[in-house]
């Protein structure tokens, strides 16, 4: 496995170097970054093929759903992913987990998932993340909204990089992992919710994004590495077709199928 400098160590170095700077200059820099990031992210979003984990997890946060410990993919699992396919799918899964922990301001978990994100990006030879990315993260560790913008921008920019370098299969694996983990997080939250109906509605609202993902996968559906994943997602899409919010038993069955698929991938 290609050696990758861990984000945590790099972040510690950056924090040490910058500790002599005064807080007011850091705030000014963070404000500048905010303005740049809003523009960059808006431009990239227009080219992103489907809704991201950000929208789904923001829904959870806005509905008042609490953070659930130990439902995300354990950071230590990153060492178990040896194949190209495993790394690419779990890049998407960890990206969703990173958005989740950042949204709920879990700093230690966020640092761990940034480690994993950077490691997998390195292993997969995705070279779009540079020193500026780490500087932006360091400058905004205590600013949730800015940090989310940085991570969103990195997610969009990574997809753009994969398209431009003809790494379409990698991009599809990552998109699949992100979609699966996002719906998994929704489903896991359902298990703890008193009022399940809004969560059921949000699950159903993501039918079209799955259909769009499957369309993107069509050219690769007969490739050996894609067959099983394509088949599993197609089965989930078929379950979506006739569902309404009142069909709670069927939605539970769909949710359980997504959870089972996700658990088989991590």
Name the features.
mainly alpha; about 0% strand; 12 helices
What would your notes on this structure say?
The protein is mainly alpha-helical and 266 residues long. The protein has one domain. The protein has helices spanning 7-18, 23-45, 53-62, 84-103, 107-123, 131-139, 144-164, 168-190, 197-205, 207-217, 224-240, 248-265. The radius of gyration is 18 Å and the shape is globular. 38% of the residues are buried.
Low-confidence stretches: 1-27, 37-49
| Strand coverage percent | under 5%
Percent of residues in helices: over 70%
**Helical/strand content category:** mainly alpha
Cα-to-Cα separation, first versus last residue:
18 Å
Please state the oligomeric state of the protein chains shown: single chain
User: What's the average pLDDT?
Assistant: 79
| H-E string | HHHHHHHHHHHH
Number of domains: 1
Number of strands: 0
Please compute the radius of gyration using only Cα atoms. Answer: 18 Å
Please tell me what the overall shape is: globular
Largest sheet: none
How many separate helices?
A: 12
Structure in a nutshell:
The protein contains 12 helices and no strands.
List the helices and strands and how they pair.
Blueprint: H1 7-18, H2 23-45, H3 53-62, H4 84-103, H5 107-123, H6 131-139, H7 144-164, H8 168-190, H9 197-205, H10 207-217, H11 224-240, H12 248-265
């Amino acid at each position: 496995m290609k050696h990758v400098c861990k984000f945590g160590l790099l972040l510690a170095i950056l924090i040490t170097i910058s500790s002599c700077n005064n807080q007011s200059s850091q705030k000014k820099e963070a404000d500048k970054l905010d303005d740049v990031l809003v523009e960059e992210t808006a431009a990239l979003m227009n080219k992103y093929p489907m809704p991201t984990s950000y929208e789904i997890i923001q829904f959870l946060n806005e509905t008042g759903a609490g953070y659930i410990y130990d439902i995300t993919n354990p950071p230590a699992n990153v060492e178990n992913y040896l194949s190209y396919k495993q790394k690419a799918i779990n890049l998407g899964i960890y990206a969703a987990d990173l958005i989740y922990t950042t949204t709920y301001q879990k700093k230690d978990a966020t640092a761990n998932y940034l480690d994993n994100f950077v490691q997998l990006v390195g292993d997969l030879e995705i070279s779009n993340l540079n020193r500026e990315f780490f500087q932006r993260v360091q400058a905004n560790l205590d600013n949730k909204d800015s940090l989310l913008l940085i991570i969103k921008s990195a997610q969009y920019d990574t997809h753009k990089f994969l398209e431009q370098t003809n790494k379409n299969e990698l991009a599809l694996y990552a998109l699949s992992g992100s979609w699966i983990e996002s719906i998994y997080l929704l489903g896991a939250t359902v298990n703890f919710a008193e009022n399940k109906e809004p969560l059921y509605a949000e699950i159903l609202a993501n039918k079209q994004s799955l259909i769009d993902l499957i369309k993107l996968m069509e050219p690769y559906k007969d490739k050996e590495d894609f067959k099983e994943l394509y088949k599993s997602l197609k089965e989930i899409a078929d379950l979506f077709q006739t569902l309404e919010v009142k069909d709670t038993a069927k939605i539970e069955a769909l949710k359980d199928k997504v959870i089972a698929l996700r658990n088989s991938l991590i």
